[in-house]
Amino acid sequence: MSLFILCILLFAIGLFCLLVKKNLVKKIIGLGIVEYAINLFFILVGYRTAGEAPILDKQAAVTNFVDPLPQALILTSIVIGLAITALMVAVAVRLYEKYRTFDINEIRRLRG
Fold first, then answer.
1. 3-state DSSP percent of the chain in helix, strand and coil, to 5
2. What are phi and psi of 9, to 5 degrees?
3. Which pairs with CB-CB distance under 8 Å and at least 24 residues apart come from 4-12?
4. Do 88 and 94 touch, CB atoms closer than 8 A?
């Protein structure tokens, strides 16, 4: 249960960065923290205490399997998160080239 609380705390830290910080780089880092918190939550949901790998064996009758589906979904989520992070970094670099700042308020003031 304490792992779920730590996962929620990690999510709250990332959400705080997304909502409060004005620097684009800090917002990108905050989104990465949120993504990792969600991935960790799904991995924790699929975990079973003293669970065994889901490998079928004709001789052994194991009933306490670890669920492999969240792990497979998280692999896809990591790839999608990497692509989103790369896109956001590319946009941030282009904004920096144009406005010479990462501050969102300054970019809004200089726009147009």
1. 70, 5, 25
2. -65, -40
3. 4/41, 4/44, 7/37, 7/40, 7/41, 7/44, 8/37, 10/36, 10/37, 10/40, 11/37, 11/38, 11/41
4. no
Non-local CB neighbours of 69 within 8 Å, separated by 6+ positions: 46
Residue range 35-87, pLDDT digits in tens: 999 999 999 888 878 777 777 666 666 677 788 888 889 999 999 999 999 99
Q: Which of 2, 91, 90 is nearest to 40 (CA)?
A: 2
Report how far residue 29's alpha carbon sits from residue 92's, in angstroms, rounded to the nearest whole number.
Answer: 12
Assigned CATH topology for domain 2-51+66-110: Helix Hairpins (1.10.287)
User: What pTM was estimated for this model as a whole?
Assistant: 0.85
Question: pLDDT tens, 8-18?
Answer: 999 999 999 99
